[in-house]
Every structure is written in structure tokens, then in C-alpha cells.
């Protein structure tokens, strides 16, 4: 946090516009639109609510199925459950750690069929409505392949881009390949609004709809309260957006610093048995959080223990979703790569220290 953050937040308090109306919210949305080149960005209270709204806006309803990866942060599955649907958990790719397109294609070939434009699961007959790949640690998934498979099977793509502000798949920013995709500005992300999120939309019309539905679907009127459809109270407060406006002005610096840190880790790893987790060759990652792959679970635990004893905050990756009690009965594919990785990944400290003009 620097002086700008203090100035903008103080300005919001002085203005009294601390809640769901205010100029900083619009400014932050415009910043994100410009930076990601998305048609519309709609600010929300957090990334989970952004993803929930994306699922809702993409037509996901009660009893639908939504495909995602087993190796993700729990919020991905929680948003699917919030939308009334159930996750199908598939494997990740060793290249970038996101949803594996081959696993996706093989699972659909074996377990799905098309009924007109509706994709259904052969065993449960439920509708498979969406695929939610997650750009793990900021590394983009292979979007072209995933999009091709989604089109073939008439399934909506929704990117969980919570971790990937500043990451590009080929020439385009992550989150701009779907009709709706979700970002997070939680305190641990590359920029923060305290708590906050953003929906990226592929058109102005979808942006208007996302804004409407996330602000209780209230029709604009001088005095009447008329809500024309079901909606959410998910609008980001101006107070949080003020913090975000100060932070996003430094986004290029953060990305550059993160990539520099990654480069240093990579060079160190060359002299060790640790395998540094690199961006896929087709992508430019924000390297939100760095990670290494250890030889086995024993060396992972030893490494974590030694680091923690030296006050270096490292940690293992998340546990796989089907090993958590609430998702233990989820449908799933072969998860051998995810299971192999979960025993070996250690995440490393990745936050740049701000100095000089940003300190
Ligand atoms: C992959 C993923 N999805 C969703 C979220 C949810 O974001 P939030 O914590 O802002 O609700 C996060 C981050 O916290 C995340 O890492």
C-alpha cells in the first residue's frame, strides 16, 4: 500500500459515497476494460460472487452439471454449487496446471451425448451446461483447444480468471475468451480492493445484463422500486474500488516484478532437484504465485518444514476438490496428474517489495 491508496480511500470517505454508488467503481471498471481489452467489466463484491453471477448469466441452473478441474481453489466449486449445479472434476495438464483439454475431450466422448443443442451426461441425463477452466497461479490454460471442444459439445465456456489479471493467452488477455468470466481482487491477488471481483463480458449488451443482475435487477426510475427479474446484491462498494484504482495504476510494475521474481526462482531451481513451474510456451503469465514440484511427498514435507522453521512462508497446493467432504461424491474423470502434483507442489513467497515511487 502506498500514498495513492490512502489518498483515494480518504477521498471516498470525505465524499460519503462509500457504498454501491460512486465514481471510483466506474473508474475501476474502465481501467480493467482498457487493460484487458474486454467489451465490459462489471465490479462485484468478490471473485466468488463474480463467478456465481457468470454461471447464472450463462444459464446454469439447478441440477445442471458444470465441468471444472479437481486442482483448484475451493471457490470454483462453491460458485458452481451456489448456482444450484454440481461439478464434474477433471484432470489438469502438466503444462500450466490448468484444465487438461485432452481429459475434457476424452471425458465428453465417453460420458456425454448431444440431444439437439443440449449436452447431457450418459449416466445421469443431467445437462452439462458449462466448462470452467481455471488459470492456475496465473498460467493460462490452452483456451483454443478448450473452446473448440466446448463448441463441438454446445457447452458454454466460463473462465475462472481469479488469479490471472495480467496473463495473456497468445495475444489476448485471459478472461476475454468467454461470454462471461470472473476475476478476484482478494488481498492475496496481484492487485487488491480488500475484497472484490470483476466480471469480464464479451459485449456491451452482456455487460449491461451483468450490471443489471448484480445490482438487484432494479429498473432505473426517479423514485419507484421495480425489479424486473431475479438478481443479486453483488456490486462492489466505492470504498473498495478506490483502493483498486490506486492499485491498478501500478499493474505493469507488479507484473514486471512478479516475472522478475519468477526468473530468479527459475535460475536457482536449475541447480536443484526442484522443478520450477513455468508458463506454457503459448502464454505470458503474470506469475501471480510461484511454485516448484518436489521429487515426492517426503521431500515436499521436508522442504516445507525447513522453510517454515526459517520463517519463510511456503505452503502446499490446495487439496483436490473430491477429497473435501462436500464434493466427495462429485462425478470425476481420471485424476492421476492432479494426484501426482498435489503430493509435490510447494508454493513460494511471490510478493514484490515496493520501493521508490511506489513505496
Ligand atoms: C481460482 C479462484 N477462484 C475463485 C476465487 C474467489 O475469489 P474471492 O476470494 O475474491 O471470492 C479465488 C480466490 O480467492 C481463486 O483463487
Which secondary structure elements does this structure contain, and how are they paired or packed?
Elements: H1 3-15, H2 23-36, E1 40-44, H3 47-57, E2 65-69, H4 74-82, E3 86-90, H5 101-111, E4 112-115, E5 118-121, E6 128-132, H6 143-152, E7 156-157, E8 168-169, E9 172-173, E10 180-184, E11 197-201, H7 204-213, H8 238-248, H9 251-269, E12 275-276, E13 283-284, E14 290-293, H10 297-309, E15 315-316, E16 331-332, H11 336-342, E17 345-348
Parallel strand pairs: 2-3, 2-6, 3-16, 6-7
Antiparallel strand pairs: 1-11, 4-5, 8-9, 8-13, 10-11, 12-14, 14-17, 15-17
Helix pairs in contact: 1-8, 2-8, 3-4
The structure holds pyridoxal-5'-phosphate.
List keywords for this structure.
359 residues; Aspartate Aminotransferase, domain 2; 2 domains; four-stranded antiparallel β-sheet; globular
Verbal overview:
- The protein has 359 residues and is of the alpha/beta class.
- The protein folds into two domains: 3-248, 3-Layer(aba) Sandwich (Aspartate Aminotransferase, domain 2), CATH 3.40.640.10; 251-358, Aspartate Aminotransferase, domain 1 (Alpha-Beta Complex).
- The protein is 36% helix and 17% strand.
- It contains eleven helices and 17 strands.
- It has helices spanning 3-15, 23-36, 47-57, 74-82, 101-111, 143-152, 204-213, 238-248, 251-269, 297-309, 336-342, and strands at residues 40-44, 65-69, 86-90, 112-115, 118-121, 128-132, 156-157, 168-169, 172-173, 180-184, 197-201, 275-276, 283-284, 290-293, 315-316, 331-332, 345-348.
- Helix 2 (23-36) runs parallel beside helix 8 and helix 3 packs across helix 4.
- The longest helix has 19 residues, at 251-269.
- The radius of gyration is 21 Å and the shape is globular.
- The protein binds pyridoxal-5'-phosphate (PLP).
- Residues 46-48, 51, 72-73, 75-76, 134, 160, 162-163, 184, 186, 197 line the site of pyridoxal-5'-phosphate.
- Residues 46-48, 51, 72-73, 75-76, 134, 160, 162-163, 184, 186, 197 line the site of pyridoxal-5'-phosphate (PLP).
Amino acid at each position: 500500500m502506498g500514498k495513492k491508496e490512502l489518498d483515494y480511500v480518504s477521498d471516498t470517505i470525505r465524499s460519503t459515497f462509500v457504498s454501491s454508488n460512486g465514481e471510483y467503481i466506474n473508474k475501476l471498471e474502465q481501467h480493467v476494460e482498457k487493460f484487458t481489452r474486454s467489451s465490459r467489466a462489471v465490479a462485484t463484491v468478490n471473485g466468488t460472487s463474480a463467478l456465481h453471477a457468470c454461471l447464472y448469466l450463462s444459464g446454469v441452473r439447478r441440477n445442471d452439471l458444470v465441468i471444472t478441474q479437481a486442482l483448484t481453489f475451493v471457490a470454483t466449486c462453491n460458485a458452481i454449487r451456489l448456482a444450484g449445479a454440481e461439478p464434474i472434476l477433471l484432470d489438469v495438464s502438466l503444462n500450466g496446471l490448468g484444465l487438461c483439454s485432452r481429459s475434457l475431450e476424452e471425458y465428453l466422448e465417453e460420458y456425454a451425448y448431444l440431444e439437439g443443442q443440449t449436452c447431457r451426461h450418459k449416466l445421469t441425463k443431467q445437462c452439462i451446461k458449462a466448462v470452467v477452466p481455471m488459470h492456475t497461479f496465473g498460467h493460462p490454460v490452452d483456451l483454443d483447444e478448450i473452446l473448440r471442444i466446448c463448441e463441438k459439445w454446445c457447452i458454454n465456456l466460463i473462465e475462472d480468471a481469479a488469479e490471472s489479471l495480467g496473463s495473456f493467452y497468445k495475444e489476448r488477455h485471459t478472461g476475454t475468451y468467454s461470454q462471461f468470466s470472473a476475476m478476484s481482487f482478494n488481498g492475496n491477488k496481484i492487485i487488491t480492493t480488500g475484497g472484490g471481483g470483476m466480471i469480464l463480458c464479451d459485449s456491451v449488451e452482456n455487460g449491461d445484463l451483468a450490471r443489471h443482475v448484480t445490482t438487484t435487477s432494479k429498473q432505473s426510475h426517479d423514485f419507484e422500486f421495480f425489479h424486473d427479474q431475479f438478481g443479486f446484491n453483488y456490486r462492489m462498494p466505492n470504498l473498495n474500488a478506490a483502493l483498486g484504482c490506486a492499485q491498478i495504476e501500478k499493474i505493469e510494475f507488479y507484473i514486471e516484478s512478479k516475472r522478475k521474481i519468477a526468473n530468479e526462482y527459475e535460475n536457482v531451481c536449475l541447480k536443484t532437484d526442484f522443478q520450477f513451474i513455468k508458463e506454457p510456451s503459448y502464454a505470458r503469465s503474470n506469475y501471480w504465485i510461484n511454485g516448484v514440484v518436489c521429487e515426492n511427498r517426503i521431500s515436499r514435507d521436508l522442504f516445507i518444514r525447513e522453510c517454515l522453521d526459517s520463517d519463510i512462508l511456503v505452503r502446499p497446493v490446495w487439496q483436490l476438490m473430491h477429497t473435501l467432504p462436500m464434493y466427495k461424491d462429485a462425478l470425476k474423470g481420471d485424476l492421476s496428474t492432479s494426484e501426482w502434483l498435489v503430493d509435490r507442489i510447494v508454493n513460494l513467497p511471490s510478493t514484490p517489495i515496493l520501493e521508490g515511487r511506489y513505496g
